[in-house]
Amino acid sequence: MSYEKFAYLYDQLMIDAPYEEWVSFVLKMIEMNNVDCKKLLDVGCGTGNIAIPLNKQGISVTAVDLSEEMLLVAQQKSEREDAKVRFFQQDMRHLESLGLYNVVISLCDTINYLADEAEVASTFQGIFEHLDKSGMFIFDVHTPYKINKIFNGSTYAYNGEEISYIWECFQGEESNSVEHDLSFFVQTDEGVYERFDELHKQRTYSLTFYKNALEESGFEIISITSDFSTDTFNENDERWFFVAKKLN
């Protein structure tokens, strides 16, 4: 999936996203599990809103994304903020030759863009292979509750001076899936509005599936929490957080 024009609008549209909470969650998990995190890999980094702050905490960060446009924005942002993140264009389903890391993260529902169980398994295996001995994997996903009860059938809209959008959510073809139909209206230098359309598909799975997929890839589950909590879990919260360790 290519984000195309969406990449250049992403940070404007996500200005209220809780990136600080994602960064804080990662740092807390590293501390709570006594991980000596010198090297971290961010899978599905988008425009670098988590990778860059983590790098500025003194961690050597490598970040990958499928979208060339997202990576261009991320690289420009990293240079402006005097960060030293290494960015590479790779498909998370087929990670290769990136070295070994103490921690791998995949946040902001990146895993939900995988189309089926086989793609999840392939991604988990690739991440396993890029972790060093006892390395830690942290990721989050939309819950089935969020997909089915909050997203599906909902319409969101924003009307700003330079950008507006209509975001409609439809039930996807598979269970626990959603299609995001996005129409953006962006003001040009000439003062007229140009329209861009994007279709984004997301899918989630049961808690049992994620547990089994992690264990079959060779991980030991450390914790499963929800909505940025480090110690509590509610199956019907909006977002699940998984922390797993590579078995020796």
From TrEMBL:
Keyword set includes Transferase: yes
Domain Methyltransferase: 41-135
Gene3D superfamilies listed in its UniProt record: S-adenosyl-L-methionine-dependent methyltransferases, Vaccinia Virus protein VP39
The organism's place on the tree of life at top rank: Bacteria
GO biological process: methylation
Protein keywords: Methyltransferase, Transferase
SUPFAM superfamilies referenced in this protein's UniProt entry, alphabetically: S-adenosyl-L-methionine-dependent methyltransferases (SSF53335)
Entry-linked PANTHER family: TRANS-ACONITATE 2-METHYLTRANSFERASE, TRANS-ACONITATE 2-METHYLTRANSFERASE-RELATED
Name of this chain's protein: SAM-dependent methyltransferase
Lineage: Bacteria, Bacillati, Bacillota, Bacilli, Bacillales
